[in-house]
Design a protein that fits this description.
The structure holds two protein chains of two kinds. Chain A is α+β, with helices and mostly antiparallel strands. Chain A contains nine helices and 15 strands. In chain A, the strands form two sheets. In chain A, strands 1, 2, 3, 4, 5, 6, 8, 14 and 15 form a nine-stranded mixed beta sheet that branches. Helices cover 53% and strands 0% of the residues of chain B. Chain B has three helices and no strands. The longest helix of chain B is centred in the N-terminal third of the chain and has 16 residues. Chain B is globular. The chains are: A alpha+beta, B mainly alpha. At the A-B interface, helix 3 and helix 4 of A face helix 2 of B.
Chain lengths: 358, 79
């Protein structure tokens, strides 16, 4: 057993922690930025501790930090019941002889309602051992803006049958452009408004609550972000444009989508117009809830499995190629449980890894 | 199950998961003394022991069970 201890990081620790982040996450320099760290672990609308930051560190006897686990508070809605919980981020404790588990157990002590997203293989193993219900990969749906570009490198989805899928998808998505209504990009949301999912056309077993206060923090207060939000009274979408590495084209990544079927065309048309100068060739959406994702199907969104050659999912900065794994751990803990992930609404927007502004 | 049988079963599981020879395992074996006993293998140890003995440890116990001695003590309490 390690002789290290776990406690909350202090302001004076940040230079040391940021230097470690530079080693641990060389592809994501945002982690080393003080204002980003403040936003994530100090200024969140739901805090889980009264410490300066909701970020745990593993500290050796000599005071050195050798591991980390960040905690972000969130509000869940589960079967009509509001719950306060948290999700874990930046969990790192390589070669720490149990230090990773010490961090994780401290996280478990902070809340009974836990959420894990973008888990690495090691995290999936630990979550499984704790008997947490795990979805190995958030289902991905995509639609085509430029079939020719997707048949070429670096995408290379160009088998004969696949080309037909791309063409059909592109034709269906083009239909959205005929919508005349528009949703402008929001600069700020009413903090007291909630984009709830109860009473909508879908049966939703659970989700992270999308209050204006939470969404403002999640998507608009984040330093140097490139998110965009559009909304109606009930529907909401968050998206960003990710440049495709070594090309001049981009991909639109929907991070959140709760528009009703009758608003879908106008919402998609709005996004396509708002992003057209970025030369997007593809639009995608990772979503566990099949019915909500299905609202996009009439406009050419198909499951990742629709083509024989896999549509690449790596643009930058996060490697999704093995899938974005999520776990939801509600009481009773450590018992074999299943979770109806198809009726939980979970998306890439439920975590933050789009940190590199282009 | 008596203490010797319990110890033999735990030692066998540890040897298998931690890639040790059975006769390498001494009473003071722990994550501190064993290079291969990391967090990932530890959860494998826990799962294997839970299955073999039909027990379920509380989640807050798990990081405290990273030694042969503590595992045997926890099992003794439960059986």
């Amino acid at each position: 057993m390690t002789t290290a201890t776990v406690d909350f990081v202090q302001e004076a620790d940040l230079p040391e922690l940021f230097a470690l982040f530079a080693q641990w996450y060389p592809g994501n320099p945002r982690f080393q930025e003080k204002d980003y760290f403040d936003w994530q672990y100090r200024d969140a609308p739901i805090r889980v501790s009264d410490s300066a930051y909701d970020c745990l560190v593993l500290r050796q006897d000599d005071g050195r930090i050798t591991g980390c686990l960040g905690v972000s508070g969130c509000a869940f809605q589960v079967d009509d019941q509001p719950l306060i919980g948290a999700f874990a981020q930046n969990w790192y404790a390589k070669n720490q002889r149990g230090g990773g588990l010490m961090l994780f157990n401290r996280f478990l002590e902070l809340t009974d309602h836990r959420f894990l997203i973008r888990m690495a293989a090691a995290s999936i193993g630990i979550a499984s051992a704790y008997r947490m219900p795990v979805l190995p990969a958030l289902p991905r749906f995509w639609a085509v803006l430029d079939a020719a570009a997707l048949a070429d490198a670096p995408f290379g989805v160009n088998g004969a049958a696949d080309r037909a899928v791309l063409a059909r998808s592109a034709a269906a998505l083009a239909e959205a452009r005929t919508a005349t209504a528009r949703f402008p990009i929001a600069t700020r949301l009413d903090p007291d408004h909630e984009f709830g999912l109860a009473g909508r056309e879908w049966q939703v077993a659970g989700h992270i609550r999308r209050t204006g206060r939470y969404l403002n923090w999640r998507y608009l207060d984040i330093p140097r972000h490139n998110y965009a939000l559009i909304h109606s009274d009930t529907g909401f979408a968050a998206y960003l444009v990710e440049p495709v590495m070594h090309t001049e084209v981009s991909v639109i990544r929907l991070l959140d989508w709760t528009f009703s079927a009758d608003e879908t065309a106008a919402a998609l048309a709005s996004i396509l117009i708002q992003t057209e100068t970025n030369r997007p060739v593809l639009i995608d959406f990772h979503c566990s809830h099949r019915e909500i994702a299905a609202t996009l199907a009439p406009f050419g969104f198909v499951p990742q499995q629709a083509t024989t050659m896999a549509m690449p999912d790596l643009f930058r900065p996060t490697n999704h190629t093995v899938g974005c794994a999520v776990a939801v751990d509600l009481p009773p803990h450590r018992t074999l449980r299943s979770l109806d992930f198809e009726h939980w609404y979970l998306t890439l927007g439920d975590g933050d890894a789009h940190r590199v502004r282009q | 199950m008596d203490n010797n049988a319990r110890r033999a079963l735990v030692v066998g599981l540890l040897a298998d998961i931690l890639e040790l020879e059975v006769d390498e395992i001494r009473d003071d074996l722990s994550a501190e003394t064993c290079e291969t006993w990391d967090s990932i293998r530890h959860v494998s140890v826990i799962l294997a022991i839970e299955e073999a003995f039909g027990v379920l440890f509380d989640e807050h116990e798990l990081s405290g069970l990273m030694s042969l001695k503590s595992l045997l003590a926890a099992l003794t309490v439960r059986q």
